[in-house]
Amino acid sequence: MRGIERYFFAPSTPQKILAFCLLPFSVLYCAIATLKRKFARFYDFEIPIISVGNLVLGGSGKSPFIIEIAKDYQESCVILRGFGRKSKGLKIVSIQGDIQADVQNAGDEAIMIAKALNHSSVIVSENRKQAILKAKELGAKVIFLDDGFRFNFKKLNILLQPKLEPYFDFCIPSGGYRERKSAYKSADILAKESIDYERKVQLLSPTKRMLLLTAIANPSRLDDYLPNVVGKIILKDHSFFDKTTILEEYAKLNATSLLVTPKDATKLEEFGLPLSILHLEIKINPAIKQSIQDYITKESQSLFSQNKA
User: Fold this and answer.
1) Phi-psi category of 96—alpha, beta or left, where left has phi over 0 and alpha has psi -120 to 50?
2) Which of 24, 91, 204, 263 could form a disulfide with 277 if both were Cys (CB 3.0 to 4.6 A apart)?
3) For the chain, how many helices (H) and strands (E)?
4) How far apart are CA 30 and CA 158, in angstroms?
């Protein structure tokens, strides 16, 4: 684990002391986050919205979870903020699989999702309301909203509870929660890792001397799936890669391929190096998929009846 991850998930004694010293700030942060969500203006966009969120900092599998549920729906649109991109504002990443932006302007997760869903559109925007209206303008019939728990929209709220949880049940900065842990009770669907969903990893195009290169949240979660590697280059989440540095390390270790996740691979297309992919899929409890289908059907029928009247 990197230093910040150890602080939240496996703190040393000095880090535990620091966490308790910061508790007043955590209480304030938690109160503001909770009140902001509960008292925000309510919006009904008159379109089925499926929100996939989490309460814990770092990777809980939201993007592959969205890919797995969105692949069953035509005329859908995935909306996310686009962390790590070098642009601002609303950007249309893809329209029904036709990619409209590069990874620099869209962000690695958005490009990964766009490539995985060739029948969906993808939009990145800090302003989710604006993005939802644009999605409707593009003809979307259902929206999948990444990290949408905190928005007071009419939607189906899915919260993912990862297997790796913070050491303390505190909010930032004393713990790794964005809101108090009891907010799990506010979810319409609470999906627990290893119970309601699980990660399945397949190694594609392996070679004899693989160099791990990754820029994902909580990279230690890859440890259970890693084959033998000749080295590791681990950067902070969403980082872009410096080609010169990577090529130098690749040559020094006499590597035969870079071992990367699909999210990392979106930023390496012009490097000219062989890629071995840790391909992640999410297996979801069929009951959860059925609940999503029931919600979309119910909302679509209700909207149809209203428009007909």
Assistant:
1) left
2) 204
3) 10, 13
4) 20
The fraction of the chain above a pLDDT of 90, given in percent, is 79
Q: Which residues share a beta bridge with 291? A: none
What pLDDT is stored for residue 218 in this prediction? 79
For residue 295 the two structure tokens come to: 């919600």
- Whole-number Å distance between alpha carbons of 168 and 172: 10
Locate 307 and state its tokens: 């428009």
Segment 16-73, tens digit of pLDDT: 999 999 999 999 999 999 999 888 999 999 999 999 999 998 777 899 999 999 999 9
Give me 46's structure tokens.
Answer: 């008159």
Q: Which contiguous run of DSSP H or E holds residue 281?
A: strand 275-284
Could you tell me which of 37, 132, 61 has the C-alpha nearest to residue 284? 61
Cα separation, 171 vs 180, in Å, equals 6
Confidence of residue 120 (pLDDT cuts 50, 70, 90): very high
How many other CB atoms are found less than 10 A from the CB of residue 47? 21
Question: How many C-beta neighbours within 10 Å does residue 135 have?
Answer: 27
Task: Return d(Cα 126, Cα 83) in angstroms, integer.
Answer: 9
Answer yes or no: are the C-beta atoms of 23 and 271 closer than 8 Å. no
In terms of DSSP bridges, do strands 98-99 and 91-95 run parallel, antiparallel, or are they unpaired? Answer: antiparallel
- 260 closest CA partner among 218, 217, 226, 283: 226
- How far, in Å, CA of 242 to CA of 246, rounded? 6
Q: What's the pLDDT tens digit per position in 133-143?
A: 999 999 999 99
Q: What pLDDT is attached to residue 169?
A: 95
